[in-house]
Amino acid sequence: MATSEIKHPLLPFVADDGAMEELAQQYGTPVYVYDGEQLLSNLTHLDNALSSAFSLYQICFALKANTNPHLLSLMKESLPTLGADCSSPGELYIADEVGIDRERRIYTGNYESTEELKLAIESAEHLNLDDITSYERLSRIAVPKQISFRLNPGFGSGSFPEVVTAGKEAKFGIPEEKIVNAYRLAQKDGVKSFGIQCMSGSGNLDSDYFVHLLTAILENARRLEKKLGFSFSFISLGGGYGVPYENDQEPLDLDDLFGKLGKTFHEFYNPANGPVPKFMIEPGKIIIADAGFLLTRVTGIKESYKNFVGLDAGMNTFLRPALYKTYHKIFKVGEPDAPEGLVADFTGGICENTDRLATDRSFPEVEEGDLVAVMDVGAYGFSMANQYNTRPKPAEVLIENGKSHLIRRRETMEDIFSHTDWNGSKNG
């Protein structure tokens, strides 16, 4: 691939073979590496785009994308108003630990247990429920001051089918024709403040799609307000803001996107006519995906019916390609623009044929011991890592001001079994 065709903000790191080899020697491989400068640049760009279009807004970072407390603290320090989109008790816990204000948290679960709902009502200002039955379980615990429900508008969009989270096949949200009953029940119980949320899919790169989605949300909001006689306190467009994983994709123009969304929003809620709801979003990958890469070493090269490049990172380290068949750029460290003399599948050491980080990828010639970098793994990289085949999870490293430091140590075999209770011992 010619240098002019390579597009990635972290390319200077990958091109520096000396620095990458030093990282590999110091922290081992595979290792997740994050660039603090890129992370904060993404966050600032997003906040600036929103502030130009909305007077009242809230960014709630989708903690499911990445919960490393060092990275969350870095973002919170840069943007003190940062909120959190939580979808599990663990995400509520880490929001507490890094000091994200309770009133800036939205909790969106689905098929929650009573115990989970109890924790959610104690730990998040904005409870966003996926079904009327969730509210019924919640109301047996306590009736909240504010509630929102997740709308399923009957359509959704995502970069591939598995990440479409609205529409007739989605497990999420309440259909338009049923959602009024949920609000009516909450209103009858004495709830005074309401929000509405919709998350329709992940990885979208078409700004017009978000306008279409927001219009559907706002039409439903106005219908509900008119029918039930209340005004919404907040309206959330959710997440789903995509990043260009592939070279032929263009990034979202955030100024253009939120300019369009602001115009659409204020056509429904004009500040000249009185108070307007807060506009909320719950982004993940648009903030952190391209701020991280996975540094891994070639462990073997196999010529079979096709070529295989074996790595010390597999589907246990980075699950997205095996789970979703996603494409991620992979570069040869030190020579990202070297001629492509090889076509191969990149695989790890997991005992599964789905263990592929790339399939039929054109790539420069490599040898055992070479380093390669898998890009755009800051979101849903480490957070989906697992211990399958009894392999410890990798380390995480943050680069700040030209220096690296460990922000999560590599797991050990002892860590994997530290919570088991058994009768054996090394000494018999």
From TrEMBL:
InterPro entries: Ala_racemase/Decarboxylase_C, DAP_deCOOHase_LysA, De-COase2_C, De-COase2_N, Orn/DAP/Arg_de-COase, PLP-binding_barrel. Residues 49-289 form the Orn/DAP/Arg decarboxylase 2 N-terminal domain. The keyword Transport does not apply. GO terms for biological process: lysine biosynthetic process via diaminopimelate. GO terms for molecular function: diaminopimelate decarboxylase activity. Pfam families: Orn_Arg_deC_N (PF02784), Orn_DAP_Arg_deC (PF00278). CDD domains: PLPDE_III_DapDC. SUPFAM superfamilies: Alanine racemase C-terminal domain-like, PLP-binding barrel. Residues 32-378 form the Orn/DAP/Arg decarboxylase 2 C-terminal domain. Its cofactor is pyridoxal 5'-phosphate. Keywords: Decarboxylase, Lyase, Pyridoxal phosphate. This is Diaminopimelate decarboxylase. The lineage of its organism: unclassified sequences, metagenomes, ecological metagenomes.
